[in-house]
Write the structure tokens for this entry.
Amino acid sequence: MPKKRRRPSLPMRPPRIVAKLNMQHGVERDMQAFLTRACSGRWPMWRVLGMKRRGDILLLSVEWLRCAGARYSLVQLSLDKMALCWWYFPTADAARAALDAIDTRRSPPHSPTVPTVPTAG
């Protein structure tokens, strides 16, 4: 006798699009594949906390999942070439605040506006 499946208690909503990528452009297609690998699978590297697009730059606030030290970062991914850089933050709220502080009409900062965690050496 087949079991009845329970309907979810909360209705499923379609995901909110926060950044559009052009799959006809090779680097943007590769960046989408990189983000899929980095954020999913058996051993994901990141958990995305927020995302913005500014021209040819994709900005993400992330939590590093396989990291013992500083766990939160603002990551800048280039969409016109294969490049990324990041800045560490002490908390998830600080990483989100740094992302929110970036005005999408202006170019992103070269350094974050919130103090970073010093690295152990």
The longest helix spans residues 26-39. The longest strand covers residues 46-54.
